[in-house]
Amino acid sequence: MRHILDSIEVFYDHLSAVDFRWIAVALGLHLLRSLAISRAWRNVIVDAYPEEKVRWRSIWGAYLAGVGVNALIPARAGDAVRLYLVKHRVDNSTYTTLAASLGVMAIFDITAALALFVYALTQHVLPSVHVIPDLPSFDFGWLLRHTRLSISVAVVIVIALVVGYFWAARHVRAFKERVAQGFTVLRRPRRYLRRVALWQAVDWTTRIAETFFFLKAFHIVATVHNALIAQVAQSASTALPITPGGIGTEQALLVVVLAGAASRTALVALSVGVKVTVTVANVVVGFLALLIMARTLDFREIRRRRQAEEAPAAAPPG
């Protein structure tokens, strides 16, 4: 926490030098990203429920609400919110199928993130495994310093997921069919590429452009190379969201991967400035969408509603 507070102080010291014109451009691209992602997700859901009406604006609003919650609450709590909102906008939909539709989206995202990671490896800018645990404010440092325990925890998690899957497959009627329904679009590869992957490619292109203009705003050397490398740090910080928005991880990685592009204080100001700007934008827009769609800003109330809906389905027949 001390490192984070120190970084925020560095950011405020550099605030007067920030070019807010490029900040505005970056935020415009950030909003464009949400349109592309929501379009891709909507098309996945359309194929899963071809007989139902799936409005793009409803999916977009649910996506924005989820992003707003994720900006403040760790562990992807916003995903539960967006699933709840979409379920109430798509007739006859189920949480199982909608969750599976997010899995379809993850295919392209994981592939793109791995491609960027491989690119970063070829550029020799990533910190070594021995250096990572000592990076300030690095979320995964404790895990990497206790390798055996981390491996044990990972094995337990994997086993629990596998056991949970097979338990659900045996005890929840039509579970497999509902999961398969969420992946319907993959049965037609050309349709998937045209209606889903294309929009996700727009998303990733836009997020790299967004990073490029944030670099310009903070007077960091703005090149496509630096934007790609900075995007690797951002992707790594959200891979395992121990903290809201991956704050701490991204900050520590940016200082390492962009070393040479600017001074350490300038890079810290960039990481904190981007995080503050994007978080505020996500919270404002996201919670406005949440208020419009759920008519409440109380995440706990939404969770209670979802649990109440799932309880009858989980109860054994009388």
How would you explain this protein's 3D organization?
This protein is an all-alpha fold. It has helices at residues 2-13, 20-48, 56-72, 77-87, 95-123, 141-145, 147-171, 175-182, 189-217, 224-239, 249-257, 264-294, 299-314. It has one domain. Helices cover 75% and strands 0% of the residues. The radius of gyration is 21 Å and the shape is globular. The N and C termini lie far apart (52 Å).
In short:
By secondary structure, this protein is mostly helical. The protein has 13 helices and no strands. Helix 2 (20-48) packs antiparallel against helix 9 (189-217).
Please tell me the overall pLDDT. 79
Number of helices: 13
Secondary-structure content class: mainly alpha
Taking all Cα atoms into account, the compactness measure Rg is: 21 Å
Helix content: over 70%
Series of secondary-structure elements, N-terminal to C-terminal: HHHHHHHHHHHHH
Shape: globular
**Number of domains in the coordinates?**
1
Distance between the termini: 52 Å
Please mark out the parts with pLDDT under 50 across 5 or more consecutive residues, or reply none: 1-5, 129-139, 242-246
What share of the residues does DSSP label as strand, in percent?
under 5%
Specify the biggest β-sheet: none
How many strands?
A: 0
